[in-house]
Design a protein that fits this description.
single chain, 135 residues, mainly alpha, 2 domains, flat
Length: 135
């Protein structure tokens, strides 16, 4: 539990968990044992908002890990279909198209990150020069 979450009651934490995982306001209020009006008041509090952000981040990290695991299995499955001589040609062609498309997307994303990294490396000297020229 984070320091922000330590500041909330157990009722608030239950409501945060429901909201952070996509639950409705009614479900979050019920989980916290409060009315939707109370939940609305909580949602205005900075501590509650920070706990929501923190919990949503934790959920996204967990989901990302689960999806990564599924992606590894999906790539293995594509590979199996691609090399399976008994598989229908349409399935093999479809697997090849998907594999090539994903490969290109990954390559583009990697190239984009590399360009962003290079630009970020240039940014401090450029902004420092602008600062000197402004004065």
């Amino acid at each position: 539990m984070s320091a922000v979450q330590d500041m909330l009651s157990k009722q608030q934490l239950r409501s945060v968990q429901v909201l952070a995982t996509g639950g409705s306001l009614q479900a979050a209020a019920a989980a916290g044992g409060v009315t939707t009006r109370t939940l609305a008041r909580w949602r205005q509090q900075a501590e509650f908002q920070r706990a929501m952000t923190s919990t949503q981040h934790e959920v996204l990290v967990q989901v990302s890990g689960a999806l990564t695991s599924l992606c590894v299995q999906a790539v293995k499955t594509l590979g199996e279909i691609l090399v399976d001589q008994a598989a229908p040609p349409a399935a093999r062609i479809s697997a090849a198209k998907v594999a090539l498309d994903l490969s290109m997307r990954i390559s583009d994303a990697r190239d984009s990150r590399e360009r962003q990294y290079q630009l970020n490396e240039l940014l401090p000297p450029i902004t420092a020069q602008w600062d000197r020229e402004a004065y």
